[in-house]
Q: What sequence folds into this?
């Protein structure tokens, strides 16, 4: 059932499934995807007693800002704050958090800074918190070419290109990042509607400029960004997932980040899977969520 709830900056639109009294799990999508990435994950979790929450991130779907004056920030602290405030608004004391890409980043942030709110964590590509202080240091050529879209967004040509061709552009990313996933046009169109959000372009552009220190963030999040810069470890029960065919972060690309997991942690590599793990491998993703939930109960 599609619902809405108010936080400090947003009216968040979210889908809720399962029993209202079930154990809560929040499933968080990435860029450029939406809550439909979890369509096949939800039944597995709901049948195992979960109350499943799937929010549209800021800039996606029917989620809206309260005020036209609010900076359309896509910085990592904004995503983390939105998630904490969503839990507060839904009166959820603690939940299993699971996500990838932007959503995995939000989940890692809350697991790091508010571990009492997190019963367990599933994160694709490891520790997704951005080290902005090192963002301007070049990587090797193989890693750099995979991030071409981020550098494209650093200029106004990139902003205009995303605004004018968002459907075509995002579909290209789906294909490049999941080269072995044969998704249908109907599947893509179902998610692409979420990119028609009036704030989508502004939030995306701000995200990819802020992470490189090219624009200022929202002052509301300055203190959280300071804490995130410390790159604190994650202590909650966690499973990290890697797709063997991920076109953004190849297998092993997140290996250095795994040292930040100092609690009960397991890394799983999924053969034949690209970047959009929950939609490409819903059973494996569901099993990871159920595993961390059971560990939290031990």
A:
């Amino acid at each position: 059932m599609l619902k809405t709830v108010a936080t400090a900056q947003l009216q968040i639109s979210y889908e809720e499934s399962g029993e209202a009294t079930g154990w809560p799990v929040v499933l968080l999508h990435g860029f450029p995807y939406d809550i439909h990435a979890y369509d096949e994950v939800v039944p597995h979790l709901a049948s195992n007693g979960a109350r499943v929450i799937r929010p549209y991130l800021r800039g996606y779907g029917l989620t809206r800002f309260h005020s036209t004056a609010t900076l359309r920030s896509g910085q990592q602290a904004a995503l983390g704050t939105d998630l904490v405030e969503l839990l507060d608004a839904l009166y959820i004391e603690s939940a299993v958090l699971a996500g990838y890409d932007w959503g995995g980043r939000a989940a890692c942030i809350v697991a790091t800074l508010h571990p009492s709110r997190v019963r367990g964590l599933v994160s694709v590509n490891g520790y997704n918190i951005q080290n902005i202080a090192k963002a301007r240091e070049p990587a090797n050529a193989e890693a750099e070419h995979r991030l071409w879209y981020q550098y494209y967004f650093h200029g106004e040509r990139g902003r205009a290109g995303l605004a004018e061709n968002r459907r075509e552009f995002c579909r290209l990313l789906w294909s490049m990042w999941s080269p072995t996933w044969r998704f249908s046009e109907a599947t893509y169109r179902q998610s692409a509607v979420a990119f028609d959000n009036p704030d989508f372009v502004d939030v995306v552009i701000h995200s990819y400029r802020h992470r490189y220190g090219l624009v200022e963030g929202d002052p509301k999040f300055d203190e959280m960004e300071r804490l995130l810069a410390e790159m604190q470890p994650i202590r909650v029960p966690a499973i990290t997932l890697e797709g063997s065919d991920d076109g953004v972060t190849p297998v092993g690309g997140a290996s250095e980040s795994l040292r930040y997991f100092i609690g009960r942690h397991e890394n799983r590599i999924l053969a034949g899977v690209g970047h959009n793990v929950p939609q490409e491998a819903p059973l494996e993703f569901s099993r990871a969520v159920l595993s961390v939930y059971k560990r939290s109960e031990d």
